[in-house]
Every structure is written in structure tokens, then in C-alpha cells.
Amino acid sequence: MSVASRLRDVRDRIERACASVGRDPSAVTLVAVTKTVAVGRIREAYDLGVRDFGENRLQEALPKIEALPRDVKWHFVGVLQSNKAKAVANSFHVVHTVEKLSQLVQIERARPIEGLIEVNIAREPQKAGVLPENLDKSVALVQQCVNVRFRGLMAMGQLSSDPEENRPHFRQMSELGKRFGAEWLSMGMSADLEVAIQEGSTHVRVGTAIFGERG
To answer: What whole-number distance in Å separates Cα of residue 68 and Cα of residue 147?
Structure first.
């Protein structure tokens, strides 16, 4: 299946999910995640109107950032290593995975970015992110930063064959977002974007559904 047909399907899914809860589809940003995707296929998505792209690894992202036009908005959606946080901030526009002070110290030495705090909403020990009860401190730290504009929260749903299993987690994220004044909620991926949108997601991070299974 071509990138064009896959992208059309994803956009249709977003529109239907928004319609089901009376939301405007323009309020949901599609972040096309390009991990392991060749520049040529990324360019296909760009030519079809995608302007927000996400990458998990700095080194893989750099040649893609260089190859794509300057009007692309690059989102870092991978695990943010503190020793690479400055370089990430200098190359990306948005970082979705802020979680600790050591990252912020490095980002403060870089250019300004838009930042989201990653929340381990499902309390999975193998995943990164701040636990909900520790968000007060994390938000306060980010808001003290000069070069990080606090935009909201990010979470990953649990891997499951039933997207409905993530609805309680996404609903809790929406409640946390309201509590902390989040403009953005980054949640929902290829398998569960409908549930995430119905629960208030503003940014869905979609890779496989656009570019196919990773090799």
C-alpha cells in the first residue's frame, strides 16, 4: 500500500474520531513518526501536506532534518538522554519526552523549544516518564526554564489488542492536562489514535499506519 493511501486512511480515521465526539479535526495534529523510514518516503508524506514529523533518535534524525524543507516541524518523541538533550533541542522544535532536571539543564544551554512532560500514566516499570503524583514538581521545574515553553503532557498507551484498554489512561491524562493548564496532549499512536482523540488528544504520533511495518 502506498504512503498516499495509508495517509488518506489515517486522516479519515482522525476525522471520524473527531466527529464521534464533536471535535474539529483541525485541532488534532498528525505527527508522522519516521523512525527507520527513508528520506524518499518521508518526502512523499511531505508532498501530501504533512508538516509535523517525529523521530526517536538524534543521529538518525539529523540527515533527514537536513534533507527536508525548512518548514517542517520536527518532534523528538524518543527517550531523551541527558547528555544529548542540548543537541536534540538545537535540532528539534518540540520535545515530547521531558522528565527530569538533568535534561532541562542541558536544554537551557540550547535554543528555545516547545516541551511536553512525559507521564508514565500506566505505571509500567519498563517505560520512562513521570508518575502522576510527581507532576507538580516536574511542571514547576519546566516552567522555571527560559528555553523550554511548557505546552503540555505526553503519554504512551499500553500495548494491547484492544484500544479500549487505554481509554482510562487517556482519560486520566486529559484530567491531568486540565489540572496543569496543558495546551497540548500528545497521546495516541497507530493502534489507538481514535480512543486518544475521543479523550482529548491534540497530537497523535503515527508511524506504522502511514509508512508500514518497520523492517
So the answer is: 25
CA–CA separation, 3 and 53 (whole Å): 14
22: region left, alpha or beta (phi > 0 left; psi from -120 to 50 alpha): left
For residues 90 and 108, the answer to whether their CB atoms sit within 8 Å is no
Which secondary-structure segment (H or E) carries 45? helix 39-47
Phi, psi (deg, nearest 5) at residue 22? 70, 35
Evaluate whether 144 touches 120 at the Cβ level (below 8 Å). no
Which amino acid is located at 27 in the chain?
A: A
Q: pLDDT in tens for each of the 215 residues of the chain?
A: 899 999 999 999 999 999 999 999 999 999 999 999 999 999 999 999 999 999 999 999 999 999 999 999 999 999 999 999 999 999 999 999 999 999 999 999 999 999 999 999 999 998 999 999 999 999 999 999 999 999 999 999 988 889 999 999 999 999 999 999 999 999 999 999 999 999 999 999 999 999 998 75
Q: Enter the C-alpha cell of residue 165.
A: 484498554
* pTM exceeds 0.85, yes or no: yes
List Cα–Cα distances, 70 to 16, 44, 65, 83, 204, in angstroms: 31, 16, 8, 26, 22
Rounded to the nearest angstrom, the gap between the alpha carbon of residue 79 and the centroid of all alpha carbons in its chain is: 12
Helix %, strand %, coil % of the chain (to 5) = 45, 20, 35
What is the Cα 144 distance to its own chain's centre?
22
